[in-house]
Write a structure and sequence with these properties.
129 residues; mainly alpha; 72% helix; transmembrane helix; Transmembrane protein 254
């Protein structure tokens, strides 16, 4: 019985779950395209992008400052999500340093696609005997 409790405690200290691939891919592609629009707009093949091409051109022509600020705001939000993930790790008893690093990196790169699993994680409470 003592072994089971220690194993349960160890599992809680090192809980990690990889983010769902589809939302993660959408996040990476979205931030990648956003960065491409902001930093290298001259290299975008607008005519090859279908309806996204003229829309992108319009945004760049009429709202470049908003796009630039929005890009940095998106990364700031990812940083805040990452800091929140670290707070959640501590509050949920995830104390393993390498596991916390995994949550840190995954949340920084994928945002809510990762943070969702940490928010919904409910560690088992050990019964007091």
């Amino acid at each position: 019985m003592v072994v089971a409790k220690s194993e349960a405690g160890r599992a809680a200290t090192s809980y990690f779950r990889t983010a769902n691939p589809l939302p993660s891919l959408i996040t990476i592609l979205g931030l990648g395209y956003f960065g491409w629009m902001v930093f290298w707009p001259e290299s975008i093949p607008y005519q090859s992008l279908g309806p996204l091409g003229p829309f992108t051109r319009y945004l760049l022509d009429h709202h470049h400052t908003l796009l630039h600020n929005g890009y940095w705001l998106a990364w700031l939000i990812h940083v805040v999500e990452t800091l929140y993930a670290m707070v959640l790790c501590k509050s949920k008893g995830i104390t393993n340093t390498s596991t916390q690093l995994l949550w840190f990196l995954q949340t920084f790169l994928f945002g809510m696609a990762s943070l969702y699993y940490l928010i919904t994680y409910r560690p088992r409470r050990q019964k007091q005997t």
